[in-house]
Amino acid sequence: MNVFQDNQSCFQPFFMPETNLEKNPKLFDPQEAIMLGNLFKDLYMTYHGFSNYCLQPQTKRQQALLEVQMYDFVAHEINLYLDMHPQNQRMVKLYTEYAKKAEEAKCQFEKEFGPLAVKDSHNTIPFQWVQGPWPWEYQC
Q1: pLDDT, tens digit, for every residue of 97-123?
Q2: What is the reported pLDDT for 100?
Q3: What's the pLDDT at 85?
């Protein structure tokens, strides 16, 4: 018995009919979304009553890095949503907006604090990437 031949339906794309909720999902604001780990209000559930850690950057560098991560996170969440609902023009527009904000935040961060990834380092001698501080290192 070949399971793959007998059960062809498992290879069909999984699309549910759009409801009003799917057309206009309720979203957290970006700062709240990154702290909760979920952009979509209707999909968020607390984990056994634990509260989320409130992100409080202490320096300008930490604030700039949080902004890059926040906009990247929101754009990625919307991208995942669009995988299932590619016709939702509101979400396509939001994706474009947040992807642009993420790129702008990254450019601003790199302008002030250096590259976030080795591919973004333009100096080869000395190789700027290893000079630090690394993006995740604590900065006083």
Answers
A1: 999 999 999 999 999 988 887 666 666
A2: 98
A3: 92
The Cα–Cα gap between 139 and 133 comes to 8
Per-residue three-class SS string for the chain: CCHHHHCHHHHCCCCCCCCHHHHCCCECCHHHHHHHCCCEHHHCCCCCCCCCCCCCCCCHHHHHHHHHHHHHHHHHHHHHHHHHCCCCHHHHHHHHHHHHHHHHHHHHHHHHHCCCCHHHCCCECCEHHHHCCCCCCCCC
- pLDDT at site 115: 81
List of residues 6+ apart from 129 with CB closer than 8 A: 115, 118, 121
Domain boundaries, the chain: 30-45+57-130
**Residue whose C-alpha is closest to residue 29's, from 71, 89, 91:** 71
